[in-house]
């Protein structure tokens, strides 16, 4: 049955398809809005079907990958015709995608109307059946858009379900475990859609804490992608292996190991082999490249979270913007991506130095207070042993040797928390302490840092 020509816009179809194949991340922008039926032209439908298949496999749907998928699907076409479609581009992708979505609904209106007209001339179907069929078809037209809209009652039902689970002890953690009981009890683990900032001064252990959390999460089945602007995958892997084996990472990489060290390393390899930890050697310090890679990791491997080390070293394409604006933009984009992909993202950040009072605080986040505003959780790392200082406040009696203070200075939905954990400088591993070591004497500000 031919549909009125006014209910199609093949020029808009070409613009949408071409833009998706040209612009990185364009497909994710309109994926929820479009379906194969949004394209009237049959060849355009096959192109969009190929785009979905390529993206679902974890690859980017560009001109080459989509063409190859069309060939693999057995679709016969003229190359010049495909190139002419793939060469179209618009800066208003959302506008044209919405038009295609609306036209597809109107074509469905026509089909439903024809069904009603045909049943007005015959009694072959029961009136109630006709009414139910039409009602179901009309409801399905807006199913995709209504699926993300819910009422307060549905929200209450979900919260009530969580309360019952907590009472029954049926699900101790709702998120990815960090390996630190105090954090997990407070937050339920690393929660999907959360942006977590780990901040500290240079040499305080930001990267080590992030790698420790990654190792703990992966050992319990989580899948994590790691992006480091300063370390290669071999160096990060050596750190994880060091935490498992007890052999220092620098010795693993650069020294001739003893027989006992080799045995320890072999056991460590057995523990971490096959764990869900991923690196992207193609990633650079460009934020757009990293965001694209995280999308790829989610599609290809179904990652639970990603770690970015660290914010201040990232390159941001914002001409005319100062560093504060750039860092604020990066933090917001990471937060939006975490929410969109339903994963958690840990981003590391430097703190401005304060030699007079080295105790970390939110106010010292380097380059932008907007980082803290975008974050759901901000963890501050403090190892006073490095500075020859003592712990502040309630922890002033704690021995600083081989310990660190983790300060959750911002915790949206979880509150604030400070606790002491252990730190092994040889393996750069943060770990839980069964007993907090008490200092034999107060560490004076003038004392040198004790040697390990």
Could you characterize the architecture of this molecule?
This protein has 452 residues and is an alpha/beta fold. The chain has 2 domains: 5-146, DNAb Helicase, Chain A (Orthogonal Bundle), CATH 1.10.860.10; 181-431, P-loop containing nucleotide triphosphate hydrolases (Rossmann fold, 3-Layer(aba) Sandwich). The protein is built from 18 helices and 9 strands. Strands 3-2-4-5-1-6-7-8-9 form a 9-stranded mixed sheet, sandwiched between helices. A hairpin with a 4-residue loop joins strand 8 (417-424) and strand 9 (429-431). Helix 12 packs across helix 14. The N and C termini lie far apart (82 Å). Residues 169-437 form the SF4 helicase domain. Keywords: ATP-binding, DNA replication, DNA-binding, Helicase, Hydrolase, Isomerase, Nucleotide-binding, Primosome. Pfam families: DnaB, DnaB_C.
